[in-house]
Amino acid sequence: MSGDSVTRGPVLVLGGRSDIGLAVAHRFAAAGRPVQLAARDAAALEADRADIALRHGASVTLHEFDALDTAAFGRFLEALGPLPEVVVCAVGLLGEQGRSEGDLAEAARVMRSNYEAPALILGELANRFAARGSGVLVGISSVAGDRGRASNYVYGSAKAGFTAFLSGLRNRLAKTGVHVVTVKPGFVATRMTQGMDLPARLTASPDAVAKAIEGAVRRRRDVVYVKPIWALIMLIIRHLPEPIFKRAKL
After folding, report:
1. What whole-number distance in Å separates Cα of residue 217 and Cα of residue 201?
2. Is 153 assigned a catalytic role?
3. N or C: which end of the chain has fewer CB within 10 A?
């Protein structure tokens, strides 16, 4: 992978409607990179597209993408034209643990949105990137996947699967010129978490997540905790003995 392509090639943002996705688009556009925003009802993002393009003087295009319509992934990728150099997957759905426990359809939606869909689209892109011999794939996972906890285990289990998928993909592609980055933001102040009582020290902004992603792409990082304190917190949680863990309220 050439340094020029890493720093200047097009960036595809999957889940471009999300606060994190838009922050990522701003971050890379500010660096002078063409950005492809992909989301459902993409036309409704025209105001955001125009703002990013005008503010940063970058090329920004919109692309229709439904993460749960996996049968359409091939057509979506063909319609993009030339492959991007960097893909950031910001697809995800927090859901509500209580609702997921009693509603199979809701649990399936959370699981598919956080594992099946992101893994399958990045897998498709990985094959194309490997054939080309270059590219960076960034998957936004979660600290919730580091160990299942009663408060969010449906969401966390899907993120655990996605983290494992990214790890395996990184191992598989290590000698192909394609790099895979796993990003674990922890709490993020977004529309999805609005109304939740989030501890300030453990909460990142979408801009902070975007900055961490852009830095990870440039430095070829493997696994990134946006707030480093989360690495220590989850190390402790992962190593709690099961009898103690079962009594903990996490």
Report:
1. 25
2. no
3. C
Query: Which residue is catalytic, options 115, 153, 155, 225?
Result: 155
17-57 pLDDT, tens digit each:
999 999 999 999 999 999 999 999 999 999 999 999 999 99
Q: What is the pLDDT of residues 108-146, one digit of tens each?
A: 999 999 999 999 999 999 999 999 999 999 999 999 999
State how far Cα 147 lies from the chain centre: 19
DSSP per-residue letters across 140-164: E--GGGSS--TTTHHHHHHHHHHHH
Instruction: Of 106, 118, 153, give the one whose Cα is nearest residue 15.
Output: 118
> How would you label 101-139 residue by residue, b for 16+ Cβ within 10 Å and e otherwise?
eeeeebbebbbbbbbbbbbebbeebbeebbebebbbbbb
182: containing domain: 3-247
Give the domain CATH number at 163: 3.40.50.720
Q: How many CA atoms lie within 13 A of 115 on its CB side?
A: 19
Sign of the four-CA dihedral 241, 242, 248, 250 = positive
Are the C-beta atoms of residues 182 and 222 closer than 8 Å to each other? yes
